[in-house]
Amino acid sequence: MRDRELVVTGYSHGRTLYAYYEAEKLTEISVGVSDRDTLRIGDIYIGKVQNVVKNIHAAFVDVGGRQVGYYPMDEHPTEIYRDIFHRDKLASGDEILVQVSRENQKTKVFSLTSHIHYNGEHMIFIANGKSLGISRKITSAGERRRLKEMFAKWKEKYDTPNDGVIFRTCSEKCPDEILEEEYAKLAVYHKNIMSTYRSRTCFSRLMRGPSQAEQYIRNFPFTGSSRIVTDLPDVYKELKLLEGNILPEGILEYYADDYPLIKLKSLETQLERALKKEVHLKSGASLIIEPMETLTAIDVNTSKYIKKKDDNEETFFQINMEAAAEILRQIRLRNLSGMIIIDFINMKDPEHYTLLMDHMRKGSKDDPVQVNCIDITGLGLFELTRKKVRRPLFEQVRAYD
């Protein structure tokens, strides 16, 4: 059995479809435009401030090609100006160094930041970040101490007193010399950008962020028992360059059969299911998923569940536990984010609600995106939040439909 599989293939209107499997079960599916010439999260530009809107403490910055992003000034006490002689306060016409931090969502433009970072295989280098972050999935006290001590030595050795780092999960038990080599490489890369950006023209792109396919590879530890398959020549060539580096050799395959890959994997059917409001459970119950403007509501519906004479509290508890596991899968599959309210089947035993909450918290740790299980309200509604990273699946699909 493959531990992980990534399928990258073409979709309608020239878009690209990504399907990610864990233990041969579809876990994530997303649709993106061909990003050869489009903005990517992680791109670094010299942008020009188009205008400053004081009442929302934000600026709108043009990064070229009539692409204007949102720059929240409250989050940036200082800007990185291209001109060494600049005004004390950000103003229209100023040229600053920015990085794309979030793609556009609904009517909102993409977001920009001056907190520059660089993605590595085992870590994220945070320029002027100072602080240390370690993946919450690394639970060993000894391992966390090792990483902390290494980082303290690196700051002095590579003269990076004001820079920070976030260690990815895959850094656990990784040899010291490999981690140090990666940190040194990222530190040098940042210093090169900072020493040359003033000589570059406005709207120059100084760094290209990873493609969506590369992001999958960086976010998940693909091993020798994993598989990546694509029928797109450009994607294959791009990922081929990563073999032997962040991608194990021998797991990348180019699909050249006449029968379409999208049909071989039934991805159109899978995508259609992931967009439906109703999801059926094995017990006969179902989930009704309703994404709205400010939140997503999920109802555990028993309308198709055939009640039996011996139905009792324990039965409803088991259905709720089944629903909880599928809800966590659907949230990740559909890339739902923000506030999510879940209406489980009513139960009388408070202990069952406690066990249900524990089950949700434990299961949410498998999600690479931050999930916070908040509480169960007095009305029995379960509240959780999920960090916004990309547009939800239904927006991705409907963008060009």
Put simply, the count of helices is 9
**Structure classification:** alpha+beta
Total DSSP E strands: 21
Q: Which stretches of 5+ consecutive residues score pLDDT under 50?
A: none
Q: Kindly provide the radius of gyration, computed on alpha-carbon positions and rounded to a whole number of angstroms.
A: 23 Å
Q: Please give the alpha-carbon distance between the first and last residues.
A: 36 Å
Residues in helices, as a percent range: 25-40%
Task: Provide the residue-averaged pLDDT.
Answer: 89
Order of helices and strands: EEEEEEEEEEEHEHEHEHEHHEEEHEHEEH
Strand content: 25-35%
Net shape:
globular
Biggest pleated sheet: 6 strands, antiparallel
InterPro entries: NA-bd_OB-fold (IPR012340), RNA-bd_AU-1/RNase_E/G (IPR019307), RNase_E/G (IPR004659), S1_domain (IPR003029)
Organism: Candidatus Onthocola gallistercoris
Cofactor: Mg(2+)
Domain S1 motif: 42-115
Can you tell me about this structure?
The chain is α+β, with helices and mostly antiparallel strands and 401 residues long. The chain is 27% helix and 28% strand. It has helices at residues 141-157, 176-196, 212-219, 233-240, 261-264, 267-275, 313-334, 350-364, 393-398, and strands spanning 4-10, 16-22, 25-32, 44-53, 58-62, 68-72, 95-102, 111-113, 117-119, 123-126, 132-134, 164-167, 205-207, 227-230, 252-254, 278-280, 286-291, 295-301, 338-343, 371-376, 381-386. The strands form 4 sheets. Strands 4, 5, 6, 7, 8 and 13 form a 6-stranded antiparallel beta sheet that branches. Strands 16-17-18-19-21-20 form a 6-stranded mixed beta sheet, with helices on one face. Strand 7 and strand 8 (111-113) form a beta hairpin.
